[in-house]
Automatic annotation (TrEMBL):
Family named by the database record: Belongs to the tRNA nucleotidyltransferase/poly(A) polymerase family.
Name of this chain's protein: Poly(A) polymerase/tRNA nucleotidyltransferase (CCA-adding enzyme)
InterPro entries for this protein: Bact_CCA-adding_enz_type3_sf (IPR050264), NT_sf (IPR043519), PolA_pol_head_dom (IPR002646), PolyA_RNA-bd (IPR032828)
Record keyword Transferase present: yes
Lineage, top ranks: Bacteria, Pseudomonadati, Pseudomonadota, Alphaproteobacteria, Acetobacterales
Length: 426
């Protein structure tokens, strides 16, 4: 006989969506589980709906198909399918127990015991389940922990971490989003003791979890705890000195809550190299590389920013070399680092004026291309590229204001100079 529910609540709206309602109706004894229940109780938006059922995966798939839902076998080895109705996906999983775990993967078998399934989850706030009628089951005190802002592992923290090493990183993500006050001492002690196991995690899993942590509204407190426990240097290396201070400063100055901007702030140098090691996408790495270059372009004009400048010519030169969004990111980072370390430099108002002026200017584009040099009679090759580059340097030095005709005249003049130097004397 199953445990009775601990409470009955008004069924949250997510249970009444067409797909969720159809899934729960098609599977006897099924319940919504995990994040949807947690966020509904916390009064937060529900992003995804997960359902569990005391049925084997084959029967789940058959019942859902018979009810008219499309079924995708997205994780059948672990008892998971995805049901789709009217474009709305619902992940459905058989109740499970772990047979073998090695810190990265688990071998599971199916069960009909809800408590046993809940006991294999990571945190008490994720071990809640809810029927379509609003009956709530809470085997480990998750509802009280959620109300108190307390992130606790289910059962023994060391055991949960040994089952899946990624839970050490997941703890900080949930602490950033749901934790208030002092973190759970047992959780922190267990994580500190499990730091050595983090090297066994795949780079892709670490990168995914870091980005999700850095998307939290205010992650600096959780990142400070990662520093203190040794977790952050274990996954990023020693270059993350002062990471939490940089994040806190970004928040204090009102920087956008961009996870990639925050990742850059975690490292005093080498963010792009760290992202490559963590198997970030090429696009993500290139964003970090471009931001690093933009930061180097901003450094020389910091004194002018502090004094109310630089002039529009200098701003146009910056925009010609770097996209606006990378310059703005680099300015946020430089401002935050200066603030975190107490370095002298432009004040907050000066940085705000600098960003506003950059944003108000159209990005200048060098008006010549290779075809312009060909039209002037040049032959393709290194010399043509060199003269176009020299013309572009002249255009930059002039504040990027010279138009196409002036630049063509400059290019033609450079060509005449070279021609004159090659004529024989006499």
């Amino acid at each position: 006989m199953s445990d009775p529910p601990v409470a009955r609540i008004d069924p949250p709206a997510f249970l009444a969506t067409p797909a969720a309602a159809a899934v729960l109706a098609a599977l006897p004894g099924s319940r919504a589980v995990g994040g949807a229940v947690r966020d509904a109780l916390a009064g937060r938006p529900v992003a995804d709906t997960d359902v569990a059922a005391p049925l084997p995966p084959g029967e789940i798939a058959a019942r859902l198909t018979a009810a008219g839902l499309k079924v995708h076998e997205t994780g059948l080895a672990h008892g998971t399918v995805t049901a789709v109705l009217d474009g709305e996906p619902v992940e459905v999983t058989s109740l499970r127990r772990d047979v073998v775990t090695d810190g990265r993967h688990a071998v599971v078998e199916w069960t009909t015991d809800w408590r046993e399934d809940a006991a294999r989850r990571d945190f008490t706030i994720n071990a809640l389940s809810l029927s379509a009628g609003g009956d709530l089951w809470d085997y480990f005190g998750g509802r009280e922990d959620l109300a108190a802002g307390r992130v606790r592992f289910v059962g023994d923290p060391a055991t949960r971490l040994a089952e899946d090493h990624l839970r050490a990183l997941r703890y900080f993500r949930f602490q950033a989003r749901y934790g208030r006050g002092e973190p759970d001492p047992a959780a922190v002690a267990a994580i500190r003791g499990a730091v050595g196991s983090l090297s066994r995690l795949s780079a892709e899993r670490v990168w995914s979890e870091l980005k999700r942590l850095l998307a939290a509204p205010e992650p600096s407190g959780a990142v400070a705890l990662m520093e203190e426990t040794g977790v952050l240097p274990a996954v990023l290396g020693p270059a993350c000195l002062g990471a939490s201070g940089h994040l806190r400063a970004l928040s204090e100055i009102g920087a956008p809550p961009d996870p990639m901007l925050r990742f850059d702030a975690l490292l005093t140098h080498g963010a792009a190299e760290a992202a490559r090691r963590l198997k970030a996408s090429n696009e993500e790495v290139q964003r970090l590389v471009a931001r690093y270059r933009a930061g180097h372009d901003i450094l020389p004009v910091q004194p002018e920013i502090a004094a109310g400048g630089p002039d529009d010519d200098a701003l146009r030169r910056l925009l010609a070399e770097q996209p606006l969004d990378r310059l703005l990111d680099a300015a946020w980072l430089r401002q935050a680092v200066n603030r975190a370390w107490g370095w002298e430099g432009p004040g907050d108002e000066a940085w705000a004026r600098f960003r506003a002026r950059l944003s108000a200017l159209p990005r200048p584009v060098f008006p010549l291309q290779g075809r312009d040099a060909l039209a002037l009679g040049m032959s393709p090759g290194p010399e043509m590229g060199r003269l176009l580059a020299e013309t572009r340097r002249w255009w930059l030095e002039g504040g990027c204001t010279a138009g196409a005709e002036a630049c063509r005249a400059r290019l033609a003049g450079l060509m005449r100079d070279i021609h004159a130097k090659t004529l024989p004397e006499g």
